[in-house]
């Protein structure tokens, strides 16, 4: 187990957040084991609102997730880049978001998924393993997550899932805006 919050500063990096929040932030090097262990500790500290589910199946997509939990309650965390900065988008995982329309609705220009390097540099997570905790960037959140008592999220470890009260995600993040993901989900195309 890694030491409590053993994060080492690496470099000063420019920060461009929402609402004109700009400046310099200290970037931290966090290893996968550190991040996963932080999530495990967090779940233990909030045991009445979060827990870790261990499973033999590696979760790499919704099909594999469906063998472990109800995917209609799965949350995906995306990292996006815009003219206004880098943000997290926490949404129900069951549909594909229409990014351009979502960006317009949120008032974000040129919204697109961040490159793997940007995701790693800004959050410490690798693409495909981003969970909703310890992001270090402002977040936009899908209102459709809130009615559930528990939702299922990534932990950076494909064999462990975080079941968490969505309100706890709100409390642990800098949520700068809300959206209804149902308005921005791609419709299935007719044959």
Largest sheet properties? 5 strands, mixed
SS content category:
alpha+beta
CATH class membership: Alpha Beta
CATH homologous superfamily assignment = YbaK/aminoacyl-tRNA synthetase-associated domain
CATH architecture: Alpha-Beta Complex
Radius of gyration: 16 Å
The total count of helices amounts to 5
What order do the strands of the largest sheet run in, or round the barrel if closed? 6-4-5-7-10
CATH topology: YbaK protein
Q: Name the helicity range.
A: 10-25%
- The portion of residues forming beta strands comes to 25-35%
Give a verbal description of the structure.
The structure is a single chain. By secondary structure, the protein is of the alpha+beta class. It has a single domain, classed as YbaK protein (Alpha-Beta Complex). Helices cover 21% and strands 30% of the residues. The protein contains five helices and ten strands, in the order ββαβαββαβαβββαβ. The protein has a five-stranded mixed beta sheet. A three-stranded antiparallel beta sheet has the order 3-9-8. The longest helix has 14 residues. The radius of gyration is 16 Å and the shape is globular. The protein starts with 7 loop residues before the first strand and ends in a 12-residue tail after the last strand. The N terminus is likely disordered. GO terms for molecular function: aminoacyl-tRNA deacylase activity.
